Amino acid sequence: MEQCSEKFNKAFEVHKSGDLSGACDLYMEILKTEPNNAEVWDLLGVVHFQQNNFLEAETCIKKAISLEPRVYYLENLAKLYLEKGDFTTSIALYEDILKLHNTYENLFNLAMAYKNAHFWNKAKRAYEKALELNPNGYESYYNLAYLAFNDNDPHKAIECYKKVLEIKPNDWETTYFLGLAYMQVKDYKNGLKAFESRFCKKSAILSQEKLYPELMKEKPEWKGESLKDKVLFTYYEAGFGDLLMFYRYVPILTSMCKKLIIKPQRELLPLFRENSYGAEIIENYDYKKQMYFDYHLPFLSIPNVLQLEGDSVFVSHDCGYLKANAEKVRCYKEKYCSNDKFKIGIKWQGNTHYDLERVLQVEDFFTLFEIPNTQFYSFQTFEGSEEIDKIKEKYDIVNLGETFSDFSDTAGAIENMDLIISNDSSLIHLAGAMNKTSFVLLPYVYNWRWHTDLSKCDWYDCVTVFRQKEFGKWKSIFEDVKAKLIEIKDKK
Q1: Which domain holds residue 298?
Q2: In Å, how far are 172, 285, 438, 459 from 188, measured between CA atoms?
Q3: How many domains does the chain have?
Q4: Is there a domain that residue 334 lies in?
Q5: Could you tell me the CA-to-CA distances from 83 to 39, 51, 78, 90, 100 in Å, in that order?
Q6: CATH of the domain at 487
Q7: pTM of the model
Q8: pLDDT tens digits along 275-331
Q9: CA gap 287, 276 in Å, rounded
Q10: 140 shares its domain with 203
Q11: With b meaning 16 or more CB within 10 Å and e meaning fewer, what string describes 39-62?
Q12: Domain for residue 378, yes or no?
């Protein structure tokens, strides 16, 4: 570094130590006497960048470039645009920078900008060029796996994740996604084993230790030992849909042990108690209360410990292993469903903390509402339920979502429907578990559980799968949905 200023050296050391506010003050002090010091302007911009003050960072780095157009300053500006989400500007900068400084980092960042801008093929080529410069660039293999999923090529994703693990062994995040790729191609023998690296398992166990600190430390996690005369405690660790899908294994467990104890989320409690298969379904206990078990197990680990593989993973795919409460079925029928129309329940949004691509545009349903002799019911709850106002302006739709307090209520309403149409959400899993005819509408890049053959649904025989033909475009799906809906309706 061509700087000998004592103030600069002090400022740079403060910056390196992580004291960003202190470094900012010192850099600004230098600029009072050295207003044309390009390096200090750039470093001040970097400090603002690190503080997520993007506007100030952009101003400072551009000032540095105007004084001295060094490639390093251009690289910082390109990184800034990449971080703030201005991918078009970032791409243009990196394409120019690479003519001057063809490095792995610049190619990787260009690939990231392409990827985030959904220029999939350009991103793929940039990652591959980056790997030519650095064959050990595991981040590029990791992102190439993501792009392979975009191409509906989980086999290629598996290859890429394996390359990551060759370079960075025992990386649990990569192992987790490798498990998802294996399961998408229905290799559950390898997939379920790798799935044990999932993010939420550790937090799930920690939550149980908080509720049952002594018991969780004293009792072992079940690894497949004989459960004869033993009590097994299994507990939720993920979303509603995951528990509903894996609940198919509960009859197997109850037949294996003296007693099975299940702790689901509060919203699933009544439904599971109505379908207990002899298990004890418990609420969130206060940690001081007493309970006894011999082994414990996170719920999503069940098929792995049972060593299920092949079609045995999909047990009960055709029978409807969850039943609705008969009284609730009657109440919904009398109050909302006593008509001769073809009754269709819809949902457009699930948990938006994950996979925003799964959120449907509610306006795309409008073409279905024109079908004669149909009655549509909204099953949307909580976030997204405000969208029903867009429908009510033009169409008669019954808002059942506002009547649901738990999944037992939802099941009572589902039983009165002729068809369920939903994005990839808990509603589809509940309807599938009840063997109710359903359509699931998937984004272009979809979840592992729907596998690669979308002509059928392995988990639920009653579910028909529809997938976006183009990334982010829902309208074309609804043309196929409408045709299939009319076909089913006319057969009734």
Answers
A1: 199-314
A2: 18, 34, 25, 13
A3: 3
A4: yes
A5: 21, 12, 9, 9, 22
A6: 3.40.50.2000
A7: 0.90
A8: 999 999 998 766 556 789 999 999 999 999 999 999 999 999 999 999 999 999 999
A9: 24
A10: no
A11: bbbbbbbbbbbeeebbebbbebbb
A12: yes
